[in-house]
Automatic annotation (TrEMBL):
Coiled-coil regions listed: none
Organism name: Linum tenue
Record-annotated Glycoside hydrolase family domain positions: 2-154
Name by which UniProt lists this protein: Glycoside hydrolase family 5 domain-containing protein
One BP annotation, GO: polysaccharide catabolic process
Protein's UniProt keywords contain Hydrolase: yes
Pfam families the record matches: Cellulase
GO MF, any single term: hydrolase activity, hydrolyzing O-glycosyl compounds
Amino acid sequence: MGLRNELRGERQSEATWRKYVTLAGNAIHVANPNVLIFAGGISYASVLSFLKKKPLSTTFGNKLVYESHWYPFTAGPEKVWTEKPLNQLCRAKIDGYVNTTAFSFTAGGSAAVPLFVGEVGIPGAEVKKSSDNFLSCFATWAAENDLDWAWWGLQGGYYFRDNRTGMDEYFGALSYFWDRPRNPFLLNRLRLMQLKNQGT
């Protein structure tokens, strides 16, 4: 069960996040103690670093999963993905991501909390160099860590969204008519991440 999606704006805060994640998580756990509870961070589900100093105290224990979203434009303009050698840039971006969000599953012992990347994506019709570099970086790191993730999004378009009819979903894996892949090359790129690379 996922809690509030992509907190943002002036009303978001660490205190508010802690209060309502705890309240909602407890309510879900009482209703069904068998389900996992997904809690995304603040700032569009990209920041959980405040948990380093004070981890979340819950009554639903090992049912908690932290969720993050990551795009080429997360934590800076997309163009930065073409401004330095990819290996150097990728290392810096991964270090930044681990520092703000992914530290939760790299921590040792009881401090470790699973991480689910609930949204990762790039515009699918024409893959720009910056998007390609981002995807190469993320796919390699995700495969190395056997990370669980979800692509944004499957849908090719919408009947109605943002007061518009027939809106295209540029990040969609499917075409506007939902009848074929928007970009078969992109789907091939995702196959490495779909494999289970650790454990049995």
